[in-house]
Design brief:
Blueprint: H1 2-28, H2 34-45, H3 48-60, H4 67-75, E1 94-95, E2 100-101, H5 102-137, H6 142-156, H7 159-174, H8 193-230, H9 233-240, H10 245-250, H11 253-257, H12 259-263, H13 265-275, H14 277-282, H15 288-298, H16 301-329
Helix pairs in contact: 1-16, 2-3, 5-6, 5-8, 5-13, 6-8, 7-8, 13-16, 15-16
């Protein structure tokens, strides 16, 4: 087990290096960069003094050097700007738009993003698993058709549209403001029980909105998997031998039906991050989604690159967790691949 974990950690590190190179190259594919765009705007306004200063910044930040040199500086194997470049040294790069290190810009946003994503994943499983079990064990009943219909509605409703509707009607009918992650009066205050309570109350709507589409999809897939397992011979034999219905369902068919969803954890984490970007903008959530959208628009390369690499890190970490969970969930799976 220890040997397997070490091998996977090494593989994850190599994978992230290749992903970082690919991310940086893709970000640099469009012509120009943040400083070049600023120079073009200043030239259009006729500000020659500012143009000279911008050109100096271009040299200072190393944007006049080849792409591979800029990548090496960002990673930390080549000298970069003022010690703020170097992922291998624990530094995230420099944000041109905010004029600060990337870690300073998105430091708090990363923590809130992880919190929101964990709550969304918990919400998805807490809601979808009981509904899918009920729908599979009460096939062709009125309740099963009702939850299937609700699942189709959730699958077809865009998350940002639902967020806008809740934002408007909750404020109009009940006077409740759900924008942001806490009330405005707590914005500059230190953390307290009141601020934590405001945070938790504001998280209810974003978590439900972001998780609704994935919940609807998971209900449909888990129901189909359960129906397939419940019709197999081992389930029929277990019931014939007198195994209690709950145990006959949860011990074998449910565990096997959950395999695809456990294996999909690696894709679920980044999909929740990317899928919540527009919802975060609509609900004014200080997560990394709005930062990523703005960084890509302004070609703030180090900020965009770090956020995309963070999403890639979530992906490979999720896949690693999924492999370990699959071995625990299904005794037919063995990590070593031996006899």
């Amino acid at each position: 087990m220890i040997r397997y974990v070490l091998r996977r950690v090494l593989t994850m590190a190599v994978t992230l290096i290749f992903i970082s190179l690919l991310i940086f190259i893709v970000i640099k594919l469009p012509p120009g960069d943040y400083i070049t765009n600023q120079i073009d705007e200043l030239r259009a306004q006729g500000e020659t003094a500012s143009i000279a200063k911008a050109e100096q910044m271009r040299v200072q930040y190393g944007l006049d050097k080849p792409v591979l040199y800029q990548y090496g500086a960002w990673i930390g194997i080549l000298p970069g700007h003022d010690g703020y470049s170097g992922l291998l040294q624990g530094k995230c790069g420099w944000s041109f738009e905010y004029g600060q290190p990337v870690c300073t810009v998105v430091g708090s946003a990363i923590g809130l993003t992880i919190l929101v994503n964990i709550l969304v994943i918990i919400f998805i499983h807490l809601v979808s698993i009981p509904i899918a079990i009920y729908s599979a064990t009460h096939k062709n009943s009125v309740g099963a058709h009702a939850v299937t219909f609700l699942g189709y509605i959730g699958l077809a409703t865009p998350s940002f549209l639902l967020a806008l509707a809740l934002l408007y009607y909750l404020n109009r009918w009940f006077g409740i403001s759900i924008g942001g992650l806490y009330d405005p009066k707590y914005a500059n205050e230190a953390w307290s029980l009141n601020k934590l309570g405001s945070l938790l109350s504001h998280l209810v709507v974003p978590v439900a909105v972001i998780g609704l589409a994935s919940t609807a999809g998971m209900i449909r897939r888990l129901r189909a998997n359960l129906l397939d397992e419940l019709s197999k011979q081992y389930t029929v034999t277990a019931k014939a031998k007198g195994l209690p219905p709950g145990k006959a369902l949860l011990k074998y068919p449910f565990r096997i039906a959950m395999n695809p969803f456990v294996a999909d954890i690696g894709n679920l984490l980044p999909s929740v991050v990317s899928g919540s970007a527009i919802v975060s903008i609509v609900l004014s959530l200080p997560t990394i989604g709005p930062y990523l959208v703005q960084a890509l628009k302004s070609q703030d390369q180090y900020l965009a690159g770090f956020i995309l690499l963070f999403v890639a890190f979530l992906t490979v970490t999720g896949m690693f967790i999924a492999d370990l969970a699959l071995a625990v969930l299904d005794p037919r799976i063995r990590l070593g691949g031996g006899k």
